[in-house]
Structure formats: structure tokens, C-alpha cells
Amino acid sequence: MPAEQNLNIVPFISVENMMDLVLSTGTETFLKELAAYVEEDFRRWDLFDKVARIASHSRDGVIELMPASDGALYAFKYVNGHPKNTKSGRQTVTAFGVLSDVDSGYPLLLSEMTILTALRTAATSAVAAKHLAPKGAKTMALIGNGAQSEFQALAFRSLLGIENLRLYDIDPAATERCRRNLSHLGLNITACRSAEEAVEGAQIITTATADKQNATILSDNMIGPGVHINAVGGDCPGKTELHRDILLRSSIFVEYPPQTRVEGEIQQLAPDHPVTELWKVITGQTTGRESDTQITLFDSVGFATEDFSALRYVYDKLNGSTRFEKLDLLADPDEPRDLFGMLLRRQAAAQNSPEMITA
């Protein structure tokens, strides 16, 4: 928690602040600490005011708001998903978020969340795999080597001990970039020529593609017994990555069914197809992996409690830190009801110092 400050000032974490915070902590340490917050909040699932994200879809993408509250803190994230953006040198996904105090309604933190979303998505994937993947798994296939890929690899190494990484993307340059970025971190990396080659020998398969369409990244014949699938890319209506037959052979675990049934891989299935909520596995209310031959599937679409966890974690990291900017965000008149008087005083000050107001 930042030191006491004027009520009009809200701590702001810029992209530069976030990068410095991650690097000063250590990326893998940051992922492990963030994962602990994500898991803690899954354990507090019943406390949360939850709603599926509010989405505005267009031909080329989606803009979403993702709110959640535990009764003491409230958070929301603004996030987009526009796969075509890469053609114009822009990010597919950008985001920012706010953490607020429920008691007063005052914002406590405004933060970039483009980097933070990549970190929290990877941390959540690894938390799920900790409960669902085969014990002692050392090899992961990573299909789709875009902006999320390195974070996924590091999260699975730091939380599960993954040693071998098999990469594939339809764009070889993306695979080469991912390989290069991870090459100094001690992973055994194989660049593959097809998705089929990538899944050979993998106990964990992560799919993280960006195209906004129903696709078949994994076909049924590619999935053998005992694997864990971490399906990250399917996250909106009309966008999936797995052949339907894989779903029918798998034990499916989800974050929040009302959202996942609309956006996730299970949009391909009947509305009443049985799924298990991840929080019930984490709290021990139900079983995750039950056998060595079971196929487990985490149908991950990203849920607002994970963003809540990420913002809560970052806010706690600011205790004693200077890695934030002071943003003059809130009007704070001397007398709370005299907002217009605050404007008049500003006018008077400007008249005394005309340079304060420019045309």
C-alpha cells in the first residue's frame, strides 16, 4: 500500500512502472507470487460478486469490461481482442484496470494491464495445471507462439518444473522469436514444423492462438490418454481451437460456467454438458485428475476474479515502493459539496496567473 497521500491522487502503474516492477521482482518470482494470489482468491470464490464479462463485439474484434468484488475491494478491467491489429503493428490485446475501495468508492490503483494480463493468464494456467496435469510432467507443447507464449512457458517452468518445450506456430518467425527469447533460461526447446510434431511426447499441451474463428488446432487423433490440455485461445463466441471429439473424451474444468459456455471450447457442446468449476478442485470439494489415462482440459477464457487478484497483488507490491506515478484523478474540493466553488477558485487563480490556462 503506498504511503498516505492527498485524496485526489491515485497511484498509476504505467507500462514502464510495470516492467520495472516485474524485473525488480524477477519474472518467475512475480509469476509464482501472482499465482498464489490467484489461487487464494479461487479459494474465496463464494465471497465474490461475479458476472460474465460485458462484451461489445464488432466485425474485427471485441471490447470487454470485466468486474469483480469480494465486498471489500472492487476491480474491473478494460480489455480488447483484435487479431488484425498485428498487421498494422499494434497489439492484439491491450488492457488497463482499476482497483477500488468498496467502503468509500475511491479508486486505490489505476494500472496498465496489457503486460499484467499476460502474466495473470499464465499464472492461472499454471495454477490449474498444478491440480490437473500428470504428476511429474516435464514436457509441454506450446501451439501458438504469440505474445502469451513466453509467459506460459515461464509459469509452467516455475510452478510445475517443465523442462522441455515444443513450439509450433503457423508463422515460423513467431516460433523463432519465442525460442530466442527463452533460449538463455535453461529450457530444452524444440521448434516444430507442425502441431502434430509439437504434441509428440508432450504431457501438457497449451494452445494459445489468436485468430477470431472456429479452428481445429488440435484434432482428435493428436490427443492420447493421460495428457492435460490448457486451452487458452478460445475466448469469445465463434472462436475455438479444439475438435469437438476431444471435448467429448475429456474431463473439462472451467472458471465460470455462464461465461465459458458462451466463449470457451464448450460452446461446441450442449448447454448442459457436465463441466467442473476449477475452484471446487482447488478447495478440495471435488477431484481433479483421477487416473493416469484421464484427459483433463482446462477451458480457460479468463475471468474477472483473476484480474482482481492481479490488481490486488500489484497494489500490495507497492508497499514501500516508488514504482508508480501520482495521478491527479479525483476532484477533492476543500468542502466536499462545493465542487463548483473548486472550479471558481481555479478560475480566480488563472486570472491572477494567465499562463495557467492556454488556448
Automatic annotation (TrEMBL):
Molecular-function GO terms, alphabetical: ornithine cyclodeaminase activity
Catalytic activity, EC: 4.3.1.12
Enzyme class: lyase
SUPFAM superfamilies cross-referenced by the UniProt entry: NAD(P)-binding Rossmann-fold domains
Keyword annotations: Lyase, NAD
Annotated InterPro entries: NAD(P)-bd_dom_sf, ODC_Mu_crystall, ODC_N
Pfam name, any one: OCD_Mu_crystall
Similarity comment text for this entry: Belongs to the ornithine cyclodeaminase/mu-crystallin family.
Name of the protein in its database record: Ornithine cyclodeaminase
